[in-house]
Amino acid sequence: MAVDRLSQAWATIKRIAVFVLLVMLAAAIAEDTFIRYRDKVWTIFSSSLRSLWSDVISFFAHDELKLYIVGTFILTTGVFWLSNLFFILLDLTGWPACILTYKIQPEFLLLMTDFLKALKVALFNQIFVGIPVLSCTVSTMRWMGSTWSAEELPSVNRVLLELAVFAVVEEIGFYYSHRLLHHPRLYKYIHKKHHEWTAPVGIVSIYAHPVEHVFANLVPPGLGPILMGSHLFTAWLFWAIAIVSTTIDHSGYRLPVFLSPDFHDFHHLKFNTNYGVLGILDRLHGTDALFRKHTLDDRDTNPKTQ
Ligand SMILES: [Zn+2]
Ligand SMILES: [Zn+2]
């Protein structure tokens, strides 16, 4: 009997060992395939990017200052208005009507007068606040080791690592600056302007007092590339992602193809909740409690919509 049990146990150990070995082998093959595939894709992609970057540098006649200030202004403004164009047309014309069903607060419609008011503030902040801030940061970027005139681009690993660091720095910077702006002694002087919109639309992401635009909209996404001494290419990539992301967050539409903007939309609706971008610090500080309760209640009352 004892011999039987021993051989049974031995057979089980062998089966487990074979299973573990197979899993490890499969993981190693998958990892190896993934790395090779990723490197292959990046090689093809990076040669196109390198030639594009080389064209960009040539366009600015290898002038670092022009490339940083004018190039960044053209890129960020272009991404902002292109990503907002669809939402502006949708809100002003109501076409295509089928997308209106995805509106989070359908009772609020964008009036032309409100749109023009937001347009003026957005243009003011981009031109009269954005350009001076860019001009002030150029020396710091250089001092921290940032390069952008070289035709060589950073490696894929470096780009991915820096994007992750930028996201964390932005979350910390935006969360705490945003919470400070909600301090009762400051709120009415600065941040109240942004909260005129209880149902935001895309361009409202930069509808803000100039002080807020600098400290909550420009510094948090700008700090990561400065601290890391990043290549301008990586900074541009992150700023483009950040602009599209904040446009979606303020769009007022819960479109199935995009990430949900409910988190920040709820901040505009209720004010003293959901201060961050990713929601990590809100969870840590418990400032998303109302939102989580609301989401759970909503799930209970409308189970089919979840
Ligand atoms: Zn907002
Ligand atoms: Zn706020």
From TrEMBL:
It holds the Pfam family FA_hydroxylase. GO terms for biological process: lipid biosynthetic process. This is Fatty acid hydroxylase domain-containing protein 2-like. InterPro entries: Fatty_acid_hydroxylase (IPR006694), Sterol_Desaturase_Related (IPR050307). GO terms for molecular function: iron ion binding; oxidoreductase activity. Keywords: Membrane, Transmembrane, Transmembrane helix. The chain crosses the membrane at residues 12-30, 67-100, 121-144, 222-244. It is found in: Membrane.
